[in-house]
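Structure ticket #2291
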Amino acid sequence: MKDTQTARHLPPEHVARLRAALPFWLSLLLVPVVLAAAWLGGWWVLIVPLFTWGLFSLLDALTGLNLDNADPQTDERQLFWYRLITLLWFPIQLALVYGLLWWVTHAGHLDTAEKIGLFFGLGVITGTIGINYSHELMHQKNRLERWLGDLLLAMVLYSHFRSEHLLVHHRHVGTPRDTVTARYNEGFHRFFPRVLRESLPSAMRAEAEMLSRRGLPAWHRSNPFWRYLLLQLFFLGLALWIGGAEGLVLFLLQAGVAVWQLELVNYVEHYGLTRKHLGDGRYEPVRPHHSWNAAHRASNWLLINLQRHSDHHVKPARRFPLLQNYDESEAPQLPYGYPVMTFIAMIPPLWRARMNRRVRKWRAMYYPEITDWEPYNKGETPMPR
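Resolution: structure written out below.
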């Protein structure tokens, strides 16, 4: 009935676009799930991570791979229904985070363990959805979208990710200068603290270098780190005002979980993949084979095609519905979607068993002339012989 009524008010091509975009709106299902967990308490507080990782892993198994590619020249006006979900997410997340902060600090039926479990699940949402949508938004030229991306990152206290991602990661991916390219044999539990330690200084240096090229000092008001700081202080202060000290701690918990989710994905996306050193500090251009690709249908719905990461690095500004899939002759393929792969990454022996042989196969396929991989394994610049 609703589809019929919609069809009466929209031209057929608009209805077709809406229906095609609807699977990417599945992230909204997480909102009633976390609200139900907050209302019911008990073991229900664990439903969000189970729903996110478990359900979408199952759906991946049921729905299979999506190997189809949209026309990359599609007019942006035809992408309205795809873009809309990313534009709406910030007010949804704002209401969700601070509404739950007020609820758990005023409702009497949740004990400390239940509150921790609930905000762990909330962090899964703000990391899996919020940071992912901010990633889509930060790559666009539209000022509103970039601001929404900044707001989503500030809500998880990781604003510098924008500078690090745009100025460092995309430029230096697969080289020693990129913090978040996971090295061969580097377990996630070594990777994560290294990234936390190195990414902020790396982002600050990149912004300072940009200002220096314009003849401006690092502390100039145009440095986005001033905006990052003010936005993060605002969200921290709002958490303290709404929930007091307990609310502030819970807010920090969700932010920490969100960052952990982000860096798990970063770990998976480029593990062991390196660009060939050409000498004099130069590396070959970025190609599709420098990122792991995954065509799993359901998790790409949830993650708005983030798993088509090979194409994202070829065309960083390309909007998510237009990202192209690559087959195994063009880019290395993950055996599962991100929900399963990030779980495996938390168990380093299992990860190495699943992934190291794939990295070795990739090296033999693309770089048979390289016989000494040890410098690449250590994240070093190979020295000329």
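Closing remark: The chain has a mean pLDDT of 94.
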